[in-house]
């Protein structure tokens, strides 16, 4: 494992552990951001602060972008993308379907991603040029299967169903897989795709911190990752290459 991969694995493991301890040992402060389901907790901010402070010491020349507001330009051309708690609504509700995630980019190139699932202790690390591992053991490759034979994980915020251009595209793609799953954590969903627990994944308007860590893991097991515009939004799709092509065609079709 490279130094960057070891650092990423350590960062997400420590962040997930910190958030889990805060949830179990104290009353979380929960604050609403843009909607009743878009929230941030005191554990999110504490975990992000820990990751930022560690990176400032270990990689002082690298930039940082965090979901909860951390930002630093850096001088190296590299940037760490941080999601201290992905699936905060699940986390605050007592569900274990959440994780801590990070990605490293060098300019426009995705280098690696890492995800830690606190409830199992599993740590996933991988990237386009680095085979994905689970606790240091190989995770892939995933089989190249058609969409009709696999599940698809996704999410659509309910008010967007009232926007025909988005809702119609969503329904075209959602009608094709064997079954659908809406589980509430993009990075955990993409871990599922990378490890074969889920078939593929698609969602629109995905923030960078919800996309890059898991996309790196999917790429590291031979999966395809795509982002493209349809009307007013950008869709992100990941999974087996054949299934991804089918989802892209459905989303982009005007038929």
What does this molecule look like?
It is a single chain. The chain is built from 7 helices and 15 strands. With 255 residues, it is of the alpha+beta class. It has 2 domains: 3-138, Fructose-1,6-Bisphosphatase, subunit A, domain 1 (Fructose-1,6-Bisphosphatase, Chain A, domain 1); 147-252, D-Maltodextrin-Binding Protein, domain 2. The strands form 3 sheets. It has an 8-stranded mixed β-sheet, with helices on both faces. The protein has a 5-stranded mixed β-sheet with strand order 12-11-13-15-14, with helices on both faces. Strands 1-2 form a two-stranded antiparallel ribbon. The mean pLDDT is 95.
Features:
about 260 residues, alpha+beta, Fructose-1,6-Bisphosphatase, Chain A, domain 1, D-Maltodextrin-Binding Protein, domain 2, 8-stranded mixed sheet, 5-stranded mixed sheet, 7 helices
Oligomer: single chain
Into how many domains do the coordinates divide?
2
Mean of residue pLDDT values? 95
Low-confidence stretches: none
Helix/strand order, N-terminal first: HEEHEEEHEEEEEEHEHEHEEH
- The CATH class assignment of the largest domain is Alpha Beta
| Dominant shape | globular
Residue share in β-strands: 25-35%
Proper CATH architecture of the largest domain: 2-Layer Sandwich
**Would you identify the CATH H-level superfamily of the largest domain?**
Fructose-1,6-Bisphosphatase, subunit A, domain 1
Indicate the CATH topology of the largest domain.
Answer: Fructose-1,6-Bisphosphatase, Chain A, domain 1
Number of strands: 15
Total helices: the number is 7
């Amino acid at each position: 494992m490279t130094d960057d991969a070891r650092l990423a694995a350590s960062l997400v493991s420590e962040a997930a552990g910190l958030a889990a301890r805060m949830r179990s040992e104290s009353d979380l402060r929960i604050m609403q951001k843009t909607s009743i389901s878009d929230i941030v907790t005191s554990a999110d901010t504490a975990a992000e602060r820990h990751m930022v402070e560690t990176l400032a010491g270990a990689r002082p020349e690298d930039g940082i972008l965090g979901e909860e507001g951390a930002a630093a330009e850096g001088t190296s051309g590299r940037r760490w993308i941080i999601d201290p708690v992905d699936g905060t609504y699940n986390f605050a509700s007592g569900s274990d379907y959440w994780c801590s995630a990070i990605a490293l980019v060098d300019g426009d190139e995705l280098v690696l991603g890492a995800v830690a699932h606190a409830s199992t202790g599993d740590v996933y690390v991988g990237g386009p040029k680095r085979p994905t591992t689970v606790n240091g053991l190989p995770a892939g490759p995933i089989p190249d299967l058609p969409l009709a034979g696999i599940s698809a994980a996704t999410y659509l915020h309910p008010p967007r169903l009232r926007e025909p251009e988005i809702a119609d595209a969503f329904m075209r793609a959602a009608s094709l897989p064997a079954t659908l799953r809406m589980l509430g954590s993009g990075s955990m969903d993409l871990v599922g795709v990378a490890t074969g627990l889920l078939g593929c994944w698609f969602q629109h308007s995905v923030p960078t911190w919800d996309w890059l860590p898991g996309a790196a893991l999917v790429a590291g097991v031979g999966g395809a990752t795509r982002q493209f515009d349809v009307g007013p939004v950008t869709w992100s799709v990941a999974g087996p290459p054949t299934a991804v092509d089918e989802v892209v065609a459905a989303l982009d079709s005007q038929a």
